[in-house]
Structures are given as structure tokens and as C-alpha cells.
Amino acid sequence: MEIENFSYKLKTGRLLFQNLNANFQDHQVNIIFGPNGTGKTTLLDFIATVNQRDPTSFHQFPSFSRIAYQPQSVSFIYEATVFDTLKMVMGMSGFRGKFKLTDLPAELQPLAATKYGELSGGQRRLVMIDAVSRLDRDLYLFDEPESGLDPKMANLVMERIHELNQRGKKVIMTSHQFQNVGRNDYLLFLKAGKMQFSGSPTEFLKQAGTQNLVEAYIKQDQDF
Ligand SMILES: Nc1ncnc2c1ncn2[C@@H]1O[C@H](COP(=O)(O)OP(=O)(O)OP(=O)(O)O)[C@@H](O)[C@H]1O
């Protein structure tokens, strides 16, 4: 999956993407980093075809029906329980068997009978990630999936995302967090309308001359 020479201007006149080029890896989790407001979500919107993709710039991305997208602010029915919510998603995904409590991940089983509207923000995010991961698609897009989660839950979510990729699914996500970046992940640093870096965490560290990803990020942010 590749983006080639893509430019996009906001209604305000600000050029958000300027001849942006990006290569995404099929067999690695692609993680887009970058400062707030730099366009990470907007780029996912284009990939997901929420914003119309320019076919001359977007190459080899699956079609809309083969993409699952977890935006930052999407909700389920507040009155439905966690169990019924996930059962409904399984139904949408074509599952026709009997959906059981044990089909929920361990961390969601105690919440099975709780209404979605009564969950905390982080718990809602867990349900959302679980739901999106259950859809049978080729490409999964996650917008800041770990935000608002405690470190243990964030770790679980990232495990889930890595599992998807290991099952052969393509994954592109955005993040502001480094603690769950895996050695095999593919980092893309978006700033000033372009991907200023693409490569492995090892290369990212090497380029910044540090052993710490947060320090490397700050250095990149200062340099561009
Ligand atoms: N509907 C809109 N109308 C006008 N400007 C918008 C709209 N949506 C987003 N923007 C602007 O586009 C820019 C990029 O926003 P976007 O949400 O893609 O950034 P981001 O990198 O995902 O930020 P964050 O890390 O804070 O989530 C921001 O300056 C934002 O104000």
C-alpha cells in the first residue's frame, strides 16, 4: 500500500499534506506518529475513504468494504450490554453460530452484562477495539487505540493489534505512545505535510542517536 505525491488543502487554506509519499508494510504494524494537528486522523480518513481518495495518489489499498476503521469518537448503542454489542458485531461479520460469554476476551467478560453507556471511556475503547478486530477485513485502521487506557489495557490492545497482523491482516494505526511499540513495527513520522521518517524503531533510534524512543521523537520533532 502506497501513497504517492499526495497534497491536500484544508478549507481554511492550510496545506495539510504537501507531495506526501508513504509506503505501508503488509507484514508489520504501521504506526503513524506526529505532533497534534499534523494530519494523522485526516490521513486515516482518506485511507478509509471517509474522505474521497485520489486514485492517482493512493495505490493498492483495499476497497471500502474490505476495511475496518476505528475512529477516535464513535459510539455504540448506550442501552445495549457489552455482550449484546459484540454479539451484534459478530452477526454483522457473518457469524451464525452461538455467541457465548467465553467468546469475549477475559478482560471484557466481567463487563458482559454492563450497558455500553455505563462503561468508562477506556472500557468503551476496549469494546470498540474488540469489535473492530472481530470484523473480517483485509485492512484495519485504528486511530490512537491506546489513548485513555491504563498501561495494562493499552498493552492488551496492542497485543490484539499485533495478533491481527500476525494472522495476515494489514494494520495502520496512529499513536502518541511508545511503550508498546514492538521491534518489528514500522514507524512513520508525519510532520509539516510529509512523512519525515519511515522505518524500524531501531533505525528511528539510530537516526536520533539515542536508545529512547521518546527522546528520538522529540529530536525528530525539533528537526522538522
Ligand atoms: N472538519 C474540519 N474542518 C477544518 N479543519 C479540520 C477539520 N478536521 C480537522 N481539521 C484540521 O486538520 C488538521 C489535522 O487534524 P487531524 O485530526 O488529522 O490531526 P491529528 O494529527 O490526527 O491530530 P491529533 O494528534 O491531535 O489527533 C488540524 O489542524 C485540524 O484542526
UniProtKB/TrEMBL annotation:
Alphabetical keyword list: ATP-binding, Nucleotide-binding, Transport
Keyword ATP-binding appears in the UniProt entry: yes
Superkingdom of this protein's organism: Bacteria
Keyword Cell wall biogenesis/degradation: no
Domain (ABC transporter) ranges: 1-217
Protein name: AAA family ATPase
Naturally occurring in which organism (per UniProt): Lentilactobacillus raoultii
